[in-house]
Design goal:
Layout lengths: L22 H27 L14 H25 L10 H13 L9 H4 L3 H31 L6 H49 L8 H27 L6 H25 L11 H40 L6 H13 L13
């Protein structure tokens, strides 16, 4: 719950009137989220480095204290910042809208044929685009979350790296995620949201092949795969949040429900994915061969790579549906040619920006 209580405020903070304005708070939020992950892995690396365990290469019961201390530290820091957010951050009140937001509402009012209405929670279930964006967001979260769970096991079981590697390899991945989050704004301005999302998916797919064919002798080149999956996953996540914000648009009064529904689907899908992975896990390995080493290699290849492909396909389907909105605006009698051209460019760049009531309802 704490992870998503701040997301509904993003539409209120996108009142700058510049192209890609909604990518700025999304990029900053995601960048700071990855900074928090970097902090956790730094603390984990320090705790393991100075632990009382005599075995410096393998995790064991003696390292339980390090993980317990990490939990105490993370919970304490999270509780402090949750208190700051819920009690010191002022939520925008009804009617607090800037000029850019008012102009955007008027434009979407014209595009929707002059039918201005408040969207209720039940109305979202009648909109096809709601389900398409939810599927895209689900695959994006699987792409980002599952590698974070199984990368430590891949490092220790498949590549036979020492236990400290579970801290500094994911640390590198998160550092690159921060870099990728701040690249999104410039990529969107150049190639649009759909192409930016697909470029992130291509990076993730490339990293999946890298993980599959990575050799134990050249294990240090794994940094390349972590860089690719860090940048690619960050770009995909920010674009999915941005497209969700576009889907909500001016209907910010029910925006919290949309983000909550996306989060619910995300948690269910990730839980089922991890449960399925654990269900098909091979038996415990012996001293001669270890089937789990190859298993984690396949997981790092199939899961993020396959989810990235499905996410990219979902985004392209959303873009295809956006052309229906373009055809409607091009024939609207109340829009002049210059404004129609602006709407067409906006819809192509932000395929979930505008409502297309014809064919968008179930």
């Amino acid at each position: 719950m704490g992870q998503h209580t701040d997301i509904p405020l993003i539409p209120y903070s996108c009142d700058s009137g510049i192209p890609g304005k909604d990518n700025i708070p999304n990029s900053v939020r995601s960048g700071l989220t990855f900074v928090c992950g970097i902090t956790v892995y730094l603390i984990m690396w320090l705790l393991l480095h100075f632990s009382a365990s005599t075995d410096m290469d393998h995790l064991g019961p003696a390292d339980a204290g390090s993980f317990a201390n990490l939990s105490y530290i993370v919970i304490s820091i999270g509780a402090c910042f949750s208190f700051v957010f819920h009690f010191l951050v002022r939520e925008p009140r009804e009617g607090e809208k800037g000029a850019a937001t008012v102009m955007e509402e008027e434009g979407r009012h014209l595009v929707s044929g002059g039918q201005k209405h408040t969207r209720r929670i039940t109305d979202w279930f009648k909109i096809k685009k709601f389900y398409m964006v939810a599927v895209m967001y689900m695959f994006t979260r699987i792409t980002v979350n599952v590698p974070q769970v199984y990368l430590p096991l891949y490092l220790t079981e498949s590549l036979k790296l020492p236990k400290e590697s579970i801290a500094y390899y994911p640390l590198m991945m998160l550092v690159c995620s921060v870099a990728g989050s701040f690249m999104c704004r410039y990529l969107v301005n150049c190639i649009g949201k759909t192409a930016t999302y697909c470029s992130g998916a291509i990076l993730v797919i490339a990293s999946a092949f890298w993980f599959q064919f990575q050799t134990v002798t050249l294990h240090y080149t794994t940094y390349g795969a972590t860089i690719l999956i860090g940048c690619g996953g960050s770009i995909m996540l920010i674009m999915s949040l941005s497209m969700t914000a576009d889907l909500i648009g001016v209907h910010s009064d029910t925006g919290a429900f949309v983000y909550g529904a996306m989060s619910f689907l995300d948690k269910i899908s990730n839980g089922l994915t991890i449960a399925a992975i654990q269900n098909f896990h091979p038996e415990q390995c012996n001293s001669v061969s270890c089937a789990s080493a190859a298993y984690y290699r396949y997981i790092m290849f199939l899961v993020p790579g396959g989810a990235a492909v499905c996410g990219a396909v979902s985004t392209l389907i959303i873009l295809a549906g956006a052309y229906k909105c373009i055809s409607r605006t091009s024939s609207h009698p109340t829009l002049n040619f210059g404004y129609r051209s602006m709407v067409e460019r906006e819809v192509i760049s932000n395929p979930t920006s505008y409502d297309s009531n014809d064919g968008d309802k179930i």
